[in-house]
Every structure is written in structure tokens, then in C-alpha cells.
Specification:
Pfam families: DUF7218, Rho_N. By secondary structure, this protein is mostly helical. It contains four helices and no strands. The radius of gyration is 13 Å and the shape is globular.
């Protein structure tokens, strides 16, 4: 998975984060939209993938960070 992400143009850091996440390799599309999740759920997801500065982010900022990381 890591190599495929690198081939798609992802940075090494982002490719590593995605490939090492516990959800990697699962297909779905069944998760709720970020806007429908609580700030705590968004924070936990940001923590899981290693987004820095998450503790000071608003819900809107967490959503943006998750979408761009």
C-alpha cells in the first residue's frame, strides 16, 4: 500500500501514516461524514493519524486538518 501511495504522489510521511493506520486496506464508504461526528471523535481520529496541534483546534479546523493530511 505504501508504494502505491508514493506512486500517486503522496509524501513519504503521509503514505506511512495511511499505510500504518488500523483501517488501512479496508474498503467501505460507510463511515459518517466528518461534519456528523463529534469534536471528540474528530480529535481521536486526528490523534490516530498523528496530526500535530489537534488539542487547540476547533471542530472546523480538525475537519480541515483531517481532509488535508
Amino acid at each position: 500500500m505504501y508504494e502505491a501511495l508514493i506512486d500517486k504522489g503522496y509524501s513519504k510521511q503521509k503514505a506511512t501514516r495511511i499505510a500504518n493506520s488500523e483501517d488501512s486496506g479496508k474498503k467501505g464508504g460507510k463511515s459518517s461524514k466528518y461534519e456528523e461526528r463529534t469534536t471528540k471523535e474528530l480529535y481521536d481520529k486526528a490523534k490516530q493519524i498523528g496530526i500535530d496541534g489537534r488539542s487547540k483546534m476547533s471542530k472546523k479546523e480538525l475537519i480541515q486538518a483531517l481532509r488535508t493530511s
